Amino acid sequence: MRLLITGGAGFIGANYIRYVLSVHPDYHVINLDKLTYSGNLGNLKGIDGYPNYTFVRGDICDRNVLDGIKFDAIVNFAAESHVDRSILDASPFLQTNIMGTHNLLETAKQRDCIFLHVSTDEVYGTIEKESFNENSPLRPNSPYAASKAASDMLVRSYVETHKIKAIITRCSNNYGPYQFPEKLIPLVIINALNMKPIPVYGDGMNVRDWIYVTDHCKGIDTVLHNGKNGEVYNIGSRNERANIELIKLLLVKVAGRINLNENEFAGLINFVRDRKGHDRRYAIDSSKIEQQLGWKPEISFDEGISKTVDWYISNKQWWQRIISGEYMQYYNTQYAERLKK
Ligand code: NAD
Ligand code: TYD
After folding, report:
1. CA nearest to 178, candidates 216, 151, 224
2. In terms of C-beta density within 10 A (0-12 exposed, 13-18 middle, 19 or more buried), how is residue 303 classed?
3. Which end of the chain, C or N, has fewer beta carbons within 10 A?
């Protein structure tokens, strides 16, 4: 199988490429990535020399680049992925997440290949109690979530209208190695290691369901090989945590790992102005993929968090390169804004 993986230099895409090549060593992976601010070829160190791995720098919006690549299936990770950035400027989200997905769908229509679209639980919006299943209505609240919901709808329409072979997965919040430092978990670990304040949005009681990234990768691979055409599969971990609870746990783990008294970190917690339109709680029901395809998460929350803290402590060079670059300007401007009344 020749797999076209888009966005494979990002957090989840890179983890997926590592996973796929370990379980399907006979596959050929073509990684198509534009290398935006969050794309990093360092995420694929070690893999880049494999004879069955090819990197192509390109944009999923560009039809010509796709015309030059041979593949049997597409797994689409490429996206603008950060909610805060979509609040500052939604245009790149509409371009990549909607127009880019449309371009890939047109290619899938011509080639008669399988299209797996990696989506998010954020398309369902916020829920106070219980959880969303695959038939729940889409009520996205951020421009990021709206762009992902639009792409999901396009995928559905191409299945119905053009009879392409496509499947959608909707996963909860991922964490693990190679996650870009703008997202909550790496941000807390890195700021703690640098003794910098940790911005907690609002009252810190927003809830997310956290899944270790390799569990998500296994779910995607299960769906790619055994999923039913035209279906949607939720992938979640039932690890719901309020942000403040998660942040405190991370600080205990980091302190323990570097032999520091956790009280040293207490002063870093800084409640700041809330995110606009901040979804209170995400929760999805994954019983469909569990019952129909036999997938289930394998990494407990405690194990996953420990592995993640260890990874960031052992891979300082990886994140120091990022925080010494243009990312820091974005971060400092955002942080200063959040301190304003
Ligand atoms: P990421 O920001 O770390 O990686 C995105 C990758 O896509 C980067 O390598 C970037 O260079 C690339 N890219 C962006 N625009 C492109 C374009 N026009 N053409 C080609 N490549 C482009 O994001 P991530 O966290 O790895 O998320 C990957 C996918 O998973 C996204 O579709 C996201 O919506 C989805 N998802 C993420 C989470 C999460 O918690 N991170 C949860 C559920 C679903
Ligand atoms: P994030 O990692 O951006 O993921 P998402 O918004 O896609 O769920 O944020 C996770 C939660 O953490 C979310 O409720 C917003 C909150 N948050 C903070 O409190 N402080 C921060 O600095 C960041 C980045 C997020």
Report:
1. 216
2. exposed
3. C
- The alpha carbon of 298 is separated from its chain's Cα centroid by a whole number of angstroms, namely 18
209-225 pLDDT, tens digit each? 999 999 999 999 999 99
Q: Which atom of ligand 2 is nearest to the CA of 183?
A: 2
Ligand 1 pocket, residues with Cβ under 6 angstroms: 6-7, 9-13, 33-36, 38-39, 59-61, 77-79, 81, 96, 100, 118, 120, 148, 171, 173-174, 180
Q: Is the pLDDT of residue 174 over 80?
A: yes
**Residue 210, strand partner residues:** 173
Instruction: Let me know: does 232 contact 130? Beta carbons within 8 Å.
Output: no
**Percentage of the chain surpassing pLDDT 90?**
99
C-alpha distance from residue 127 to each of 33, 208, 209, 222, 279 (Å):
34, 11, 12, 27, 8
How remote is the CA of residue 266 from the centroid of ligand 1, in Å? Answer: 33
* pTM greater than 0.90 (yes/no): yes
Check pocket membership of 246 for ligand 2, CB cut-off 6 A. no
Sequential DSSP letters for 161-203: HH--EEEEEEE-EEESTT--TTSHHHHHHHHHHTT--EEEETT
Residue from 81, 97, 183, 327 to probe ligand 1 pocket by mutation (most atoms less than 8 Å from CB): 81
Whether residue 115 contacts residue 74, with contact meaning beta carbons closer than 8 Å, is answered with: yes
Give the domains, in start order, of the chain with CATH numbers. Answer: 2-173+212-236+278-304 (3.40.50.720)
The predicted-structure confidence for 127-173, as pLDDT tens digits, reads as follows: 999 999 999 999 999 999 999 999 999 999 999 999 999 999 999 99
265 CA to centre of ligand 1 in angstroms: 31
Which atom of ligand 1 lies at the shortest distance from residue 9's CA?
Answer: 9
